[in-house]
Amino acid sequence: GLYFTGLGGDNPPPYPVTFAGLEAAAREKLEHRLFDYVAGGAGDEHTQRANVTAFEQWGIMPRMLAGAAERDLSVELFGHRLPTPLLMSPIGVIGVMTDDEHGDLATAAASATSGVPMVASTLMQDPLEDVAAALGDTPGFFQLYTPNDRDLAESLVRRADAAGFSGIVVTLDTWTLGYRPRDLRHATFPQLRGYCLANYFSDPVFRSRLAAPPEEDPEAATMHWATTFGNPTLTWDDLTWLRSLTDLPLLLKGICHPDDVRRARDGGVDAIYCSNHGGRQAATAPALDLLPAVVEAADAMPVIFDSGLRSGPDIVKALALGATAVGIGRPYGYGAAIGGQAGIEFVLSCLLAEADLTMGLNGYASIAELTPDVLVRGWDRK
Ligand code: FNR
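Above: the input record for the complex with FNR. Below: its predicted structure, written as tokens.
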């Protein structure tokens, strides 16, 4: 129906309908250092390219006359029935991607209208309470970068719990920043100074550490943030403490090794968020290649997967390899850059429409039917 009613002819779509088109439009729109911050990654960027080509190695088996005219893409996660298996992974600078510099609120509003959960980064331009309030009835998750100040970590998690978030995602792969040549070349981080720190600046524990409030001396507050942000000494021994921070579901993001999955499970973690941070942190293997072993080790624990999803078929493939739900980063980041809330909503609806159509045309009516058997290896288009 869309071909007749809207998307084409005299009434073209308002934003690009492919990832390449979105990236090109964002490149036009954003200040070049900010664009490179989002688009770039670690080292020679082989990992982020491999994240994408890993999906291209798989094809989907077509089944005919399967009665898949009506599809159900809903999934269950921590007792929530989600309309689709898609999440918005945390993007720390999403706050400054939109014209009004309230990209976190735009993302939350898009989450409220679409039902696609937002994983809200620690690095937000608005306090987490404001973001939680904009989520409406859609469950949201709070992502913690564990600071080296334990009281501050506890305060952030306590606030997220009180604000109504449905789970805490602790990101483990960014205890210090990766080697990112584009950002090094542009000296991006001084550029980002003061950006996306409002969530910290509003925290009572963070404020108690400062000689003057951030409103009076933002420079000193920013410097304090820089020395507190990461905790390089965090180890598995600290999992008991992390677990004790909340009764909410606890997810560990960045885990891609089966032994680490088992340690997490033994430590009382509720779900694994398998990710290589979109190739922005370590130069490593494509996360997708590691997913099946992670799913096997996770046993009954849910596994959320991100890194490299660019299209509807990619969603289907990650689910078939065992993910309970999937996340995207750059695709919705570009949507935010080119259209704010409406841009994000457009990107989400295109991806979900394509995933739905991919399932239907291949003869799969529900997510439960997506098992490894529906994939064929060695499909590489090149
Ligand atoms: C990220 N990512 C990220 N992850 C996280 O846990 N906390 C964060 O604050 C951020 N910030 C961030 C900023 C930008 C600009 C990008 C592109 C990514 C990683 C993100 O959550 C996710 O793991 C990847 O983006 C997934 O890969 P794709 O979809 O971008 O290929």
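Notes for the reader.
Residues 37-38, 51, 89-93, 121, 123, 143, 171, 253, 275, 277-278, 280, 306-309, 328-330, 333 surround FNR (CB under 6 Å).
Residues 74 and 83 are 4 Å apart (CA to CA).
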